[in-house]
Each structure stands twice: as C-alpha cells, then as structure tokens.
Amino acid sequence: MHISILGAGVAGLTTAWYLARDGHKVEVIERNHGVALETSFANGAQLSYSYVAPLAGPGVLPKVPPWLLRRDSPLRFYPAMDPHQWRWLLEFVMACNRGTSDRTTRRLLTLSFYSRALMHQFMTEQAIDFGYAKNGKLVVFSDPAGFDGARRLLDYQRSLGCEQDALDRAQCMALEPALGDPASALHRRLVGGIHTPSEEVGDCYRFCVGLEAKLRGMGVQFRFGASIKALYAKHGRVVRVETDRGDIAADACVLTLGAQSPFLVRSLGLRLPIYPLKGYSLTLLASARAPRISITDFKRKVVYAPLENNGVQQLRVAGMADIAGYSHEIDPMRLGQLIKESKLAFPAATNYAQSTASMQPWAGLRPATPKGTPILGATPYANLFLNCGHGALGWTLALGSARIVADLIKGARPAIALAGFGLGA
Ligand SMILES: Cc1cc2nc3c(=O)[nH]c(=O)nc-3n(C[C@H](O)[C@H](O)[C@H](O)COP(=O)(O)OP(=O)(O)OC[C@H]3O[C@@H](n4cnc5c(N)ncnc54)[C@H](O)[C@@H]3O)c2cc1C
Questions:
Q1: What is the pLDDT of residues 184-240, one digit of tens each?
Q2: Which site from 221, 347, 355, 402 is most exposed, i.e. has the minimal number of CB atoms within 10 Å?
Q3: 275 Cα–ligand 1 center, Å
Q4: How remote is the CA of residue 40 from the centroid of ligand 1, in Å?
Q5: CB within 6 Å of ligand 1 — which residues?
Q6: Strand order in the sheet with 375-378
Q7: Contact status, residue 5 vs residue 16, Cβ threshold 8 Å
Q8: What's the CA gap between 250 and 27, in Å, rounded?
C-alpha cells in the first residue's frame, strides 16, 4: 500500500518506521524543512515508562486556583474566545477523579511497557546515537502530604507491574549527591522521593534525525516544506490531501500532526479533543555536580534529565504547562522562571552566568487530551488512521503507539487492548 504520514514528529516517524518495515510504500509530509522541529525537538528527554499518571488526577482541582493566582506557578491559563479551549477544559475537569485517573494510568502503563519492550528491541537491532541511557528516575517531594499520596500511588502502580521504591530524604541524597548541596533550595525542602531504577532518557530530536536516515535507506520519501491545508473524502475514504505544494493521493493516511491534528479533520466531521499545553526547556552544559539520574521536582513540576551528546554532558531542564493557545513564542517571563527554578534546585549544575541563548531555550506544545490518553487507530473513514494526542508522554509512548497503528493498517490484532485509546474514548 502507498501510505502518507501527515507530520514528521516522533509519532509520524515511528509510524513510518513500522509501516516501511511491513513493506508499505511510505511518504512523510511535513511543513518544516526537517524532522522533529516542533514538539519533538527539545522535550524533557525522559522515557518515563513507569511514571504515566495523567495531569487530570483527583487532587488537581483544589490546586488549580492558587496556581492560577501565582505568576510563577507551574500551570497557567490564558482564557481565549475559543470554544475548543473551553470544551477541552470542561472535559479535563470531568476527568479529575480517582476512577478515571486510575483507569488512564492502567491503560497508559500497558502502552508504556509495550513501548519500552519495543525500544529495547529497537536498540538491540539498530544503531542510533541519541544519548540513550537507563539511569533511573527519582521524583522528589517537598511536603509530607504529597509524599504520602505518592506512596499510595506507588502501591497501586506496583500492583500493575511497576518496580519503584519510596526513599526517605537521606536515601534520596545518597542516591543523587546533587540533592545534598546545602546551597540548593530543593535540598532544604526535600522530604523523600519515589525511585524507579528502570527509567530511561534519550534525546528525542537526535532519535528522529537518526530514524530519518534509516527511513531514507528503506526508500521512504520525505516531502518537506509542504503545509497540509485540507483532507477531502468521498464514499467514506480520504481521496486527496491538499498541501500548498500540490495534492497528494494515497491508499491510506496516518494523522500525526501533534497539536494541529484537530484542525485537519474537523471538515470531515471528526472531533479530536486535543489542546496544546505549552512547555519550556533548557539544554545546559552540565558540570560534574549536575544530577546523574533524572529528577522530577514534583512541587515545581520541573524535570531534570542528564543527556550525553558526543562525549559532552548536558542537562535538559523542562517544565511549565501553559493553556495559552498555539503560539510557539518563548515568553521571557516563563523562561526566566525556568532558569530560576533550575538555579535554585541545582545551583552548581552549570555556569548560570552564561548567556540565556547558550542555555538553548525552547518552547513546545504538548498535544494533550483531557484524560491524558493518546488517540490511536481507525476513524469512520476506512483509510484514515490516527496517532496523536500524546500530551506529555509522546516520546515515551512513540514506539508502542506506532506499532499499534501499523498493526491496524495491516489488519493484524494489536499486542495490547485498544479500549480507551480510540476516537471518542
Ligand atoms: C516542555 C516539554 C517537555 C516534554 N517532555 C517529555 C518527556 O520528557 N517525555 C516524553 O515522553 N514526552 C515529553 N514531552 C511530550 C512530547 O514531546 C510530545 O508528546 C511529542 O513530541 C509529540 O510528538 P508528535 O509527533 O505527536 O508531535 P510533533 O512533534 O509536534 O509533530 C507534529 C508534526 O506535524 C507537523 N505539522 C503540523 N501541522 C502541519 C500541517 N498543516 N502541514 C504539515 N505538517 C504539519 C509539525 O510541523 C510537526 O513536525 C514534552 C513536551 C514538552 C512541550
């Protein structure tokens, strides 16, 4: 079959990978002049297979008003005259309960464990250098109540196959000496953490660039600089993809447009509940005193991931969730705040006197669904498939999601149950 992949982020490229391996003729359409230049570019780098609990949790709603009142809170909301935004928020609020959150966590764990197995298989067969490492992750807590809640979640996650341990303050510092720095504000407020030794890191952009080279070697075509304008359907099938560089016809299409996905299928009568949660990152040149394992500061919602890049040690710092529309612009206030958070938490991790530009600041739009589950699989159009809406976990879930979609196109039964991941779930 001739299959068009719409969008060259990590979701599109991994889908192209499995489809090409299944013997299809694959073409990737992308508006930028290269792969992974939007949300898959400088994300938090965490392959967070065991830490998948959705943002829409039972304890979230009471925290929202104080967050919204503080200029430096991890979550910010900029109301817009956009019914899509308000409907998304309403569905998010409705998902903030224990039952939905537990169900989502269970489903996401199944998908993330599947993705991890596929990543391990990928790494044994393919050579791509993207700073991939299994260095473990420690989620640190600043108040006893938050830590207690995390221990309860740990018990639930253990029952689902996660291998995690609760560590007290001293154990956290023994595991990650960077937390023992008396000059660190994180050191002072640390009460304990949840350690997951099996978690991994890797640079998503470098993975995508390496995958592009492999795909080209397999005959996959890339059409860069082509902005998709509309999809046209007839008799229950998509018959034409209109771009500003001409039309494309294919036997099948896979929609992997990240936060832009809803717009292209609206005219087909499909509603995708995906809204961008804007986040920021820095890529710092790491000193010998930077963290060596991935750290998540639960209170401030900032992640720190050590990354090796051609012998150079980096620290990727990422955080913030702004419900603020579709602009990729870097808000200097939010950027300044991320730098401040990093400096307070790990004052010796880098030379903070360096220019802001040398910290490689970046902003990206997480394609988030209200519940936190991606939208995978078939649509009412026989030859249109979806692989979008991965929110804060698109890198982690990429290989599993892509394999599932490729299996559906092949007519094979996916390795995991699809309940909760389909359109309208
Ligand atoms: C600050 C931050 C930190 C994150 N940290 C992590 C993390 O640690 N671990 C993790 O697993 N995930 C993380 N994520 C989430 C992850 O980066 C995303 O879920 C993932 O990159 C989404 O991939 P995608 O391919 O769906 O979207 P994208 O990467 O955005 O790809 C979509 C592609 O479609 C193209 N496109 C859009 N519209 C059109 C059009 N009309 N015509 C042609 N092309 C078009 C875009 O240019 C883009 O290349 C983070 C995200 C952010 C913002």
A1: 999 999 999 999 999 999 999 999 999 999 999 999 999 999 999 999 999 999 999
A2: 355
A3: 12
A4: 4
A5: 7-12, 29-32, 36-40, 43-46, 48, 227-228, 256-258, 260, 279-281, 303, 318, 364, 366-367, 388, 390-396
A6: 221-223, 25-29, 2-6, 252-255, 384-388, 375-378
A7: yes
A8: 9
Instruction: Answer yes or no: are the C-beta atoms of 190 and 169 closer than 8 Å.
Output: yes
Distance of CA 219 to the CA centre of its chain: 28
Short-list 422, 1, 6, 53, CA closest to 253: 6
384 forms bridges with which residues in the sheet? 253
Look-up of token digits 């209170």: 299
* Radius of gyration of the CA atoms of the chain, in A: 21
Pocket residue to mutate for ligand 1, from 41, 51, 209, 366, most atoms within 8 A of Cβ: 366
CB atoms within 10 A of CB 218: 11
168 Cα to the center of ligand 1, angstroms? 35
How far apart, in Å, do the first and last CA atoms of the chain sit?
Answer: 28
The model's pLDDT over 46-69, given as tens digits with 9 standing for 90+, comes to 999 999 989 998 888 888 887 777
Cβ pair 391, 114 in contact under 8 A:
no
Per the CB < 8 A criterion, the answer to whether 89 and 405 are in contact is: no
What pLDDT score does 83 carry? 94
How many C-alpha atoms does 190 have within 13 Å on its Cβ side? 33
Q: How confident is the model at residue 424 (pLDDT cuts 50, 70, 90)?
A: confident
